[in-house]
Design a protein that fits this description.
Shape: elongated
Radius of gyration: 21 Å
Number of strands: 4
Low-confidence stretches: none
Distance between the termini: 45 Å
Structural class: alpha+beta
Strand order of the largest sheet: 1-4-3-2
Largest sheet: 4 strands, antiparallel
Helix content: 40-55%
Mean pLDDT: 82
Number of helices: 3
C-alpha cells in the first residue's frame, strides 16, 4: 500500500544503513521525520524487507485514506459473515 500511495522504497544496502534502520524505535510504523522543506514520513522495516519507505505529505494522506478504506472493507466483510452466521437455522438445537 505504501508504494501505491507514492512512498519510495529505500533498501538498507550497507551495514551503516541497516544499523540505522534497526535503531528506529517505532519499528514498522509510519512516523514523521524533520525535513528542511516539508514533512517526510518513513515506514521502517528492518526485519522483513530491510528497507524503509519514504514519502511526502500527499503520499501520507493517500496512504491514510487507503488504510481507512481497507479497514472499512474488513468491517463490512465481518458484518456480512456475522449476518450469514445469524441466518443459520439451528433446528432442534435452537434455544429460541
Amino acid at each position: 500500500m505504501l508504494a501505491a500511495a507514492g512512498f519510495e522504497m529505500r533498501m538498507a544496502d550497507t551495514p551503516e544503513k541497516l544499523a540505522a534502520l534497526q535503531g528506529v524505535v517505532p519499528q514498522r510504523k509510519v512516523f514523521s521525520v524533520a525535513a528542511t522543506d516539508e514533512p517526510r514520513f518513513v515506514y521502517a522495516d528492518a526485519e522483513y524487507c530491510q528497507c524503509a519507505y519514504a514519502g511526502d505529505q500527499p503520499a501520507y494522506e493517500r496512504y491514510q485514506r487507503m488504510v481507512i478504506k481497507q479497514r472499512l472493507a474488513a468491517e463490512q466483510d465481518m458484518a456480512a459473515q456475522m449476518s450469514d452466521d445469524g441466518a443459520m437455522t439451528w433446528g432442534p438445537f435452537s434455544p429460541w
